[in-house]
Amino acid sequence: MFPRPDPAVFTEVEDKVLSMLRDCLDRFAASTIGNGGTPRTVRGLAGGIVIALADLLPPIAQNFVILPKSVAQTSRLPWLMARPHHHLG
Fold it and tell me: How many CB atoms lie within 10 A of CB 21?
């Protein structure tokens, strides 16, 4: 068996890693704040909203309109279709 390392070694490594993580987080936060108002950010938010609406509108509309079962199943969100089917037997 190998001898166990001195715990003081891990304290030194922990200090270095925490320092590197803090520096990385500071750089990430600074870059995020600096890019907040750019046109690219606005386009990304607008695109995300459009995609979310495209995914959510068919199931919401299904609540107000009676659709054939096959159309209703294809309009559901994927995670709704992944639920277990207890009627299979």
Answer: 10
Q: How far apart are CA 71 and CA 80, in angstroms?
A: 14
pTM of this prediction exceeds 0.70: no
Cβ–Cβ under 8 Å, residues 55 and 77: yes
In tens, the pLDDT along 1-51 reads 788 888 888 888 999 999 999 999 999 888 877 766 678 878 888 999 999
Q: What is the 3-state secondary structure (H, E, C) of the chain?
A: CCCCCCHHHHHHHHHHHHHHHHHHHHHHHHHHHHCCCCHHHHHHHHHHHHHHHHHHHHHHHHHHCCCCHHHHHHHCCHHHHCCCCCCCC
The number of residues making up the chain comes to 89
**In which element (H, E) is residue 61 found?**
helix 39-64
Among 62, 86, 88, 64, which residue's Cα sits nearest to residue 74? 62
